[in-house]
Amino acid sequence: MELYGGDEAKAEAACEEVSVLSAIYCAQGELRLLQHSADDGPVVQINSTVGEKRRLDVSLLFHLHPRYPSCPPNISVSSTGLSRTQCHDIRQKLLDQAAALPPEPMVHQLVQWFQQHVEVPEEMSRSEEEKEEQCAAVLLLDHIRSHNRYVGLLQCWTQQLQLSGRLLLGRHILVILQGLRPSIKEFCRLLKTVKVDVDSSGKKCKERMMKVLIETPLSSSCGQGLQGFVVKNYQSLAELTAAFQEINMTQLYQQISPSLSYHGD
User: Fold this and answer.
1) Which pLDDT value is given to residue 106?
2) For a designed S-S bond to 142, which of 79, 209, 232, 245 qualifies (C-beta 3.0 to 4.6 A apart)?
3) Average pLDDT for residues 79-87, to the nearest whole number?
4) Domains of the chain, first to last
């Protein structure tokens, strides 16, 4: 007999699990609920410390999509002390472990397994992938009607893909991204394939009108002020210019200015 009968029951089970996890990981900053959507399922971030000789902070992101726990959660791993390849290896081990578990709430088991089995190297070596050139990109969005859902997904994706981002809301809706080129491309793919917003009739829709205004290698003098994911409103051209100056991307703004004029009213 299936443990959870239908979509509604599964959604309730996921909500109950999040509640239990909140009680277990109750220290400050230990657990964050990044998304709580009935259609897409909750996204939970659990921050854990592993290693005996060398203590290392690692962030685990669990997306409990609507069919969970009939199918395992999507998992992302990030840490400033690990290379991208090391994070990928840990993620794959967690996915393998999740696939081997029975179809029932499993996030706590996965975190425990992670804490007990992940070994932290005494010396961190940067992989070839980590040495890849960092890039910056500016995306132009068509509209944001379902603000909380849309912004929540953008924030979630930047964390999953280890990108820094800034969302500028005004006459033009711009997303500034910084990180590895494959991660930026995956972000753009998600924008065009996931229903992130609603159309004028209130029906859920994908961001098919998104345009990449620029994607360029990140120079040492450009973009050093971009960290995390920040949402910023602007009212005028001067404020938009200042927003790029604040993150040392004035040169990038100058390159996209003609495109913004073209797309203006």
Assistant:
1) 94
2) 209
3) 77
4) 7-117 (3.10.110.10), 134-262 (3.30.70.100)
